[in-house]
Amino acid sequence: MTARAADRARYDRATAHLDAPVAIVDLEAFDANADDLLRRAGGKPIRVASKSVRCRALLERVLARDGFAGVMSFTLAESLWLARSGFEDVLLAYPSADRARYAELTADPKLASAVTVMIDDVAQLDLVDAARDGGREVVRVCLELDTSLKLFGGRVRVGARRSPLHSPAEVADLARAVARRPGFEVVGVMAYEGHVAGVGDAVVGRPLRSRAVRLMQAAARRELAERRAAVVRAVRAVAPGLEFVNGGGTGSVQHTAAEDAVTEIAAGSGLYVPRLFDNYTSFRGRPAALFAQPVVRRPGVGVVTVLGGGYPASGAAGKDRLPVPYLPEGLRYDPQEGPGEVQTPLLGTPADDLLIGDKVWFRHAKAGELCERFDTLHLVEGDTVTATVPTYRGEGHTFL
User: pTM of this prediction?
Assistant: First the structure.
């Protein structure tokens, strides 16, 4: 029996009492992935990206481990909810225009001390001040640096379109604007190198593209390390009390951690290890989060149909954004249908061994987005479900 076949047998036994659709997290794999992230971080603390987990119980589990510290959230509403739930260090990774939540933040000393907001424009400070509604708490601010690699005089740009602040001078100018503004304090700098951390460099069947990605990423790491260090020096000259410099992601942990200027690493997807992380040479994780759909039809030889399953991930549309049939091994989509809204035909010889009611296990393309589809996660240890915990959705929250 292969390791994957053994996992399938365990998951089927663990969830035999549960009807599909159902989602699980294999805690042994989850914990092993956490250990791997810590090893690659080389002693620097890891801030957990909540968008990649979207389950309070699992955020608490990983943050209870030495080496993990703080949460990187994705909306202001989520940030305040987490702070009220006892999370004491929440970094909002994206600028917000939520005026009602800014009014809450600036009026509550507990929230203001626990939550740091992201900015890259003076207009965002204006929005906060306009929303204060009498609140006088000092707002903790993190400045975001654009990490994109610019080539040929800026005519070619590689990287996500995030912050407009690219040079040390631009970031330092914003730091000075914050320093002059009552009610705000610069406490951090963030730089997320998505073109390094979030792009696979070993795509199956595409050796030339993979080689090009590796060359691009090596050049991007060198350029960013130098520029990020210069940015941190420039900001510290304005805000000597700077508390943290955040960088990286699951795919670049060890590279980002090697930079002296970086004080902490962001990571979250590496805990679940969705299918997008199969194409990396820098690490190998264990799939920890899966979902199962039930077989509901047997249309013919080599074909079964499961209920639902059309859960595409965000990003540019493509096959790499689709869930992948994982267990039993050897199933594939019908290219004429793909994963469907209410039913999904699957092809392959393993289909002939599946009966009505059997489970087919899938891996989502991305990490936390799976939790937008399920109210609960069943936590599996060995061949037993040892706990059932709510996702954000199960607690009544769909923040985006």
Answer: 0.93
